[in-house]
């Protein structure tokens, strides 16, 4: 209530109080309260029961609010109703604009208010943002440490962006978000898979988690499953090439899932899983259904890994675009790492997976039957990554760990990988057979050469399935018959435009998984040069392997299949690869291609080195 | 203006005696202090604006519609620790920001300072802008006013200053 007759004394009303920084909040509050008390009681001389300290007052506010705003304005010592008190407390510490009677506006941090009788306000770091009619002792532009605004001058307080408690306070919200993230990841994975898949995936996740734990234990990973990151770190620390690789694959999957390509990725994952299963069962020809189931399982695995990595994954998802870029970059590094080091590869993998995921998905589906297609898409990146992975796996678990470091998500994934790994051993073989067939089988071969590592890599691949598949193919090609595989891919690249078609083709042939591929392919294209490659590869594959892909794959297993493709388009493919590599062009280009070709037949060593350098350089350049 | 008129949950369109016009939903009205608490913004949004308005200064208002009490009593929890942390953080931020404001300088000088601060480390030495701790730009903040520092740094600051002045001119012209 404005008291009529009350003079408007801006200078006197606005007590600008400067405290030394050493003043305690308590004493300050006391001071303010006394000041306000004087003001409030001025003229009325009424004995006002005042909270001795702001803190107490706030505490009481809390108590009251928790009690529920039952007796508004009826609280014995509180002259202000609880809702007003609540609103006041809600804006403490927020920047507010205080409008005064003379039209001036002060901006500052809401520190406290007197709720006794009159509503006086204390601002911290107050500035005069709009000058009123009256003179003031606050100069324009200067910051007043503590500004007391008396009730008589106060017109309104405007606080913007107030997080009302009903919306959840920051602290609580944050916690909730963290948890939510975890939950979300799984869900995202699930959606991709579909209801059935979801259920399966959830089931699988549980299983996977168990497996992961066991795996981790086996690998020597710390059993800090709860901390996914920890696991990732452990992986890094531990020289578990397999586990790491697995994790990577998972991460890739997760990335894929997360991304728009998620569905495709999941599909890819499924396919991969199927592939792996197929490999295990040697049932490529048998049917997609099996693949689907397997893939579902794999998906589950991936999901579990995703879950583990959820936190990390989420970030990744958030920045898919960035991720893709990174992936591209990573892909380059992967190649290089492959040649030089596994660490880089790991990083590359994640990226590759993301980028490739789409391609992989399509490729995967394709890969299961038409290995080439898969390889083509993800081949370049994936191939490089795969090769790198393979080499890395075989070579060094440490590298993997490094990769993890590079990719936070990768770390997260690592846990999942671990779980995947547990499953991986069996899966890997299957995976290799499946989409990766070309790559995978090569991978396998590589594995054979590098038993432990190879296995690990395989496992990852299986888990990574879709993404890796393509990658796997590439890598595989690089690693063992990697060159061959890569070549197929190259060939595919040549027929880039066809990709989609191929995907479709592949899908039909291979199975349901293929469906995802189309999407993924599209994505891949958009993302990178690699994508382009993929299409090409598809074409090549289609053209060259179209018929053979499935048949060849089943009989031969992935490796064989790939070879056929490679063989068919080998020369041309190699050339094509070069073309696709334009992305690479950026970096890998020719060298990579040549290397691949030569490598194809030569074992890993040659291929890897070559790929790595080329891919890395190119990618990096591109990325940059 | 009687408090009883303000039913919690009402959406009002309010004009104040100071010329402000806004819409908001009533959170509460405190008769004793004659303060009306309103919230603005999307109802479901995580953050809204809160206004504490002294009812004396309401020139006119119209009832837009009636709604439920926006405060859910069961959700009214406050974390004093986080509140305190928020205030401390805000004060620290304000302190950091306050160092950016030159005292007794023109708005043009301040905007030049702000522009320079985007690319270079700057601080105020009274009314002189100190760039990179060595180059000094004094009033009237023209390229000719740049002094001190290594020739390279000096040239750099001059260029940035010139560029920023051109930008400001363009902006001013466009307005």
UniProtKB/TrEMBL annotation, chain A:
Source organism of this protein record: Theobroma cacao (Cacao)
Domain of life: Eukaryota
Swiss-Prot/TrEMBL GO biological process terms: stress granule assembly
UniProt-recorded name of the protein: Ataxin 2 SM domain-containing protein
One Gene Ontology term, aspect cellular component: cytoplasmic stress granule
Biased composition (Polar residues): 187-201
One MF annotation (Gene Ontology) recorded for this entry: mRNA binding
Domain Ataxin 2 SM: 81-160
InterPro entries reported in the protein's UniProt record: ATXN2-like (IPR045117), SM_dom_ATX (IPR025852)
Region Disordered, residue ranges: 185-242
TrEMBL record, chain B:
Domain AD intervals: 76-169
InterPro entries attached to this UniProt entry: AD, Lsm12-like, LSM12_ABD, LSM12_LSM
Pfam families cross-referenced by the UniProt entry: AD (PF09793), LSM12_LSM (PF21166)
Entry protein name: RNA-processing
Organism of origin: Theobroma cacao
Taxonomic lineage of the native organism: Eukaryota, Viridiplantae, Streptophyta, Embryophyta, Tracheophyta
């Amino acid at each position: 209530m404005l008291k009529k007759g009350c003079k408007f004394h801006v200078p006197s009303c606005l007590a600008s109080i400067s405290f030394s920084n050493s003043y305690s909040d308590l004493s300050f509050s006391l001071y303010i309260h006394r000041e306000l008390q004087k003001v409030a009681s001025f003229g009325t001389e009424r004995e006002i029961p005042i909270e001795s300290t702001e803190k107490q007052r706030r505490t009481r506010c809390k108590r009251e609010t928790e009690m529920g705003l039952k007796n508004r304005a009826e609280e014995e010592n509180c002259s202000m109703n609880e809702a007003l008190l609540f609103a006041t407390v809600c804006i403490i510490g927020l920047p507010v604009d205080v409008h005064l009677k003379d039209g001036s506006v002060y901006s500052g941090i809401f520190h406290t208010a007197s709720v006794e009788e009159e509503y006086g306000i204390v601002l911290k770091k107050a500035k005069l943002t709009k000058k009123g009619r009256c003179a003031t002792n606050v100069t324009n532009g200067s910051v007043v440490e503590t500004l007391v605004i008396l009730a008589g001058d106060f017109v309104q307080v405007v606080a913007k962006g107030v997080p009302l408690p009903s919306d959840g306070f920051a602290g609580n919200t944050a916690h909730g978000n963290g948890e939510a993230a975890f939950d979300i990841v799984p869900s995202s994975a699930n959606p991709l898979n579909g209801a059935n898949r979801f259920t399966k995936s959830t089931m699988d996740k549980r299983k996977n988690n168990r497996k992961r734990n066991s795996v981790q234990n086996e690998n020597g990973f710390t059993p800090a499953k709860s901390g996914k990151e920890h696991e990732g770190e452990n992986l890094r620390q531990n020289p578990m090439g397999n586990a790491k690789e697995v994790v990577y694959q998972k991460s890739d999957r997760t990335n894929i899932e997360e991304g728009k390509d998620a569905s495709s990725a999941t599909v890819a994952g499924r396919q991969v899983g199927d592939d792996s299963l197929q490999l295990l069962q040697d049932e490529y020809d048998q049917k997609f259904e099996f693949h689907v189931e397997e893939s579902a399982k794999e998906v589950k695995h991936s999901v579990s890994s995703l879950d583990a990595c959820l936190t990390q994954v989420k970030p990744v998802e958030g920045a898919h675009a960035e991720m893709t870029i990174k992936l591209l970059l990573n892909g380059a590094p992967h190649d290089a790492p492959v040649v030089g080091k596994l660490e880089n590869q790991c990083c590359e993998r994640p990226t590759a997976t993301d980028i490739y995921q789409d391609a992989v998905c399509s490729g995967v589906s394709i890969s299961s039957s038409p290995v080439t297609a898969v390889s083509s898409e993800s081949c370049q990146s994936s191939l490089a990554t795969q090769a790198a992975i393979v080499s890395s796996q075989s070579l060094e678990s440490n590298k993997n760990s490094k990769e993890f470091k590079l990719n936070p998500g990768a770390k997260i994934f690592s846990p999942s990988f671990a779980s995947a790994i547990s499953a991986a051993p069996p899966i890997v073989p299957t995976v290799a057979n499946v989409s990766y067939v070309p790559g995978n089988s090569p991978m396998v071969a590589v594995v054979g050469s590098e038993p432990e590592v190879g296995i690990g890599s395989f496992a990852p691949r299986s888990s990574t399935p879709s993404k890796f598949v393509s990658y796997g193919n590439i890598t595989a090609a690089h690693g063992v018959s990697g060159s061959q595989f890569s070549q197929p891919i190259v060939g595919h690249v040549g027929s880039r435009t066809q990709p989609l078609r191929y995907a479709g083709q592949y899908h039909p042939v291979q199975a349901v998984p293929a469906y995802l591929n189309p999407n993924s392919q599209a994505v891949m294209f958009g993302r990178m040069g690699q994508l382009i490659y993929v299409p090409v590869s598809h074409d090549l594959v289609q053209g060259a392997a179209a018929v053979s892909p499935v048949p060849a794959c089943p009989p031969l297993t992935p490796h064989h299949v790939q070879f056929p493709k490679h063989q068919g388009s080998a020369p041309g493919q190699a050339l094509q690869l070069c073309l696709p590599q334009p992305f690479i062009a950026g970096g890998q280009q020719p060298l990579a291609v040549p290397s691949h070709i030569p490598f194809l037949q030569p074992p890993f060593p040659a291929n890897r080195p070559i790929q790595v350098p080329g891919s890395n350089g190119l990618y990096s350049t591109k990325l940059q | 203006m009687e408090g009883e008129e303000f039913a919690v949950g009402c959406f009002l369109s309010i004009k104040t005696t100071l010329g402000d016009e806004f819409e908001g939903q009533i959170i509460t009205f405190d008769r004793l202090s004659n303060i009306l608490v309103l919230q603005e913004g999307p109802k479901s949004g995580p953050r809204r604006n809160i206004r504490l308005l002294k009812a004396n200064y309401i020139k006119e208002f119209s009832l837009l519609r009636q709604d439920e009490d926006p405060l859910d009593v069961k959700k009214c929890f406050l974390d004093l620790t986080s509140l305190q942390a928020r205030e401390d953080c805000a004060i620290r931020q304000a302190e950091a920001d306050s160092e950016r404001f030159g005292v007794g300088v023109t708005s043009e000088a301040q905007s030049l300072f702000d522009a320079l601060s985007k690319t270079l480390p700057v601080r105020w030495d009274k009314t002189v802008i100190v760039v990179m701790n060595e180059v000094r730009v004094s009033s009237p903040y023209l390229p000719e006013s740049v002094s001190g520092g290594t020739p390279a740094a000096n040239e750099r600051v001059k260029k940035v200053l010139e560029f920023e002045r051109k930008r400001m001119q363009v902006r001013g012209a466009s307005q």
